[in-house]
Design brief:
The complex is a heterodimer of chains A (about 130) and B (about 290).
Chain A lengths: L10 E5 L3 H13 L3 E5 L2 H10 L4 E5 L7 H9 L3 H4 L3 E5 L4 H10 L3 E4 L4 H11 L5
Parallel strand pairs in A: 1-2, 1-3, 3-4, 4-5
Helix pairs in contact in A: 1-6, 2-3
Chain B lengths: L15 H15 L8 H15 L4 H9 L5 H10 L9 H16 L7 E6 L6 H13 L7 E8 L2 H9 L1 E3 L8 H7 E3 L4 E4 L1 H6 E5 L5 H4 L5 E6 L8 H14 E9 L13 E4 L4 E4 L9
Parallel strand pairs in B: 1-2, 1-7, 2-6, 7-8
Antiparallel strand pairs in B: 3-5, 4-5, 8-10, 9-10
Helix pairs in contact in B: 2-4
The chains are: A alpha/beta (about 130), B alpha/beta (about 290).
Chain lengths: ~130, ~290
């Protein structure tokens, strides 16, 4: 994958309650050279973005304790460097209202599962500003 | 299960010292050495051979072995080596899972719903890990459902080994190098440790296939892999295990047995499904079907 090499420097946080899904996305991103952190819900994700620097957060919508939308709203209310962190929302929901909700919560882009590994990488490249 | 109940009639006692003597003997005669991390296999195979020869004590078996009666050394060595499990074993069933079973299962599910897959007995974890890796490598909808993989075994030492997740090079023989590179880290000489992300994605539990009470704790599985264990049971235990497995599956759920096993001779509860890659058995959608 040629455009993959352009992602090399990105630090990415994956937020999903399914460990298999996190592993599947992590595998794609690591193959592309990204550094990957993981969180299992919005609360853990919030702790991580406050403590570490990321280039992108990939966040699922339906999660226990704190869902993806609540996490994004909290994120956008945070300190400037945290509030502007690009967010890729991934979900199984597919209607127009869900996409509007994701935008309103502060998502920069919205992808509907299933997401192939190359598709994920293409969107990550765009959102992290890697030249395509 | 991996150490079948009722498989060691009379419950012959084998001490650690007995196992050490046996391992030394095998080493001297064959050059094969079973390190401590192989103890699980050694114990299991030894129990099988004691039962198969009808020896009534370890000493009786050991003397039979030393005299090499009926080529017992070869039988023991075969037992130690041939059946040791490995990743992507019976790959055709894994193929069948992604090409036929899962498409049929998700037909009745919404995105995000759980898909429950059970590996029983899971021994030291090769099978449930293979299922997880296979799904990530080969199923395009892997992120669309909440996949829950449970690995159960009666042997707590095997389960402990499964959660530690260290495997010899031989167990990884069938995996493509790219898969080994991504999901395993070298851990000493000829050993690899599986990705902790995979360890966390599987729930390991102790369960006894022939204990009806035990089996009641397991429900709603869409697929169960129960390979090469029912053959070790007598007819009564086998039927009881099959009935328990039936109850553990969702209506419409599938069970995969070992390649030499058939459910048809054990229980009439299941429907035989012949797919291009494998023959599997289905709990009918409705109780009246297939009976």
């Amino acid at each position: 994958m040629t455009d993959v090499e352009k992602l090399l420097d990105a630090r990415i946080l994956i937020v999903d309650d399914s460990s298999l899904v996190r592993l599947y996305y992590r595998d794609a991103l690591q193959k592309a050279g990204c550094e990957v952190e993981q969180a299992i819900n919005g609360i853990e994700a919030m702790e991580k973005v406050l403590a570490q620097k990321f280039d992108l957060v990939i966040v699922d919508v339906n999660m226990p304790r704190m869902d993806g939308f609540s996490f994004l709203r909290a994120l956008r209310r945070g300190a400037p460097d945290v509030a502007t962190l690009p967010a890729l929302v991934i979900t199984t929901e597919a209607d127009a209202q869900d996409i509007d909700d994701a935008r309103a919560a502060g998502g920069n882009f919205y992808l509907i599962k299933p997401i192939s590994q190359p598709d994920l990488l293409r969107h990550v490249a765009v959102l992290t500003g890697a030249p395509t | 299960m991996t150490r079948a109940q009722g498989h060691r009639p009379g419950g012959i006692h084998v001490s650690q010292e007995d196992v050490r003597r046996l391992c030394e003997f095998v080493y001297r005669r064959t050059g094969m050495w079973f390190a401590d991390n192989k103890r699980y296999y050694v114990d299991r195979r030894l129990a099988e051979r004691i039962a198969a020869t009808g020896a009534d004590s370890f000493l009786a078996y050991f003397s039979l072995l030393r005299s090499d009666a009926n080529h017992e050394i070869q039988h023991l060595v075969n037992a130690f080596t041939v059946n040791e499990t490995y990743f992507y074993r019976e790959e055709h069933q894994l193929r069948c899972m992604t090409s036929d079973l899962l498409p049929s299962i998700v037909h009745g599910k919404k995105a995000g719903e759980p898909i429950r897959i059970w590996s029983i007995p899971c021994a030291t974890g090769e099978e449930p890990y293979s299922i997880a890796i296979w799904l990530m490598e080969n199923w395009s909808e892997v992120d669309r459902y909440n996949i829950e993989i449970v690995g159960s075994d009666i042997d707590t030492r095997a389960l402990e080994a499964a959660t530690i997740g260290i495997y010899g090079e031989r167990a990884l023989n069938r995996l493509p190098p790219s898969v080994i590179g991504r999901y395993f880290q070298p851990a000493g000489v000829d050993a690899y440790r599986i990705d902790p992300g995979l360890t966390n994605s599987i729930q390991f539990t102790r369960a006894n296939l022939v204990d009806v009470e035990d089996m009641r704790r397991y429900r709603d599985f869409d697929i169960a892999f129960c390979r090469n264990v029912l053959i070790y049971f007598d007819d009564t235990s086998r039927r009881s295990a099959a009935e328990s497995l039936y109850d553990c599956l969702c209506p419409g759920g599938y069970i995969c047995l070992g390649h030499s096993e058939t459910m048809s001779r054990i229980s009439p509860l299941f429907r035989v499904c012949r797919f291009s890659d494998a023959i599997v058995y289905q709990r009918p959608e409705h109780a009246d079907d297939g009976r």
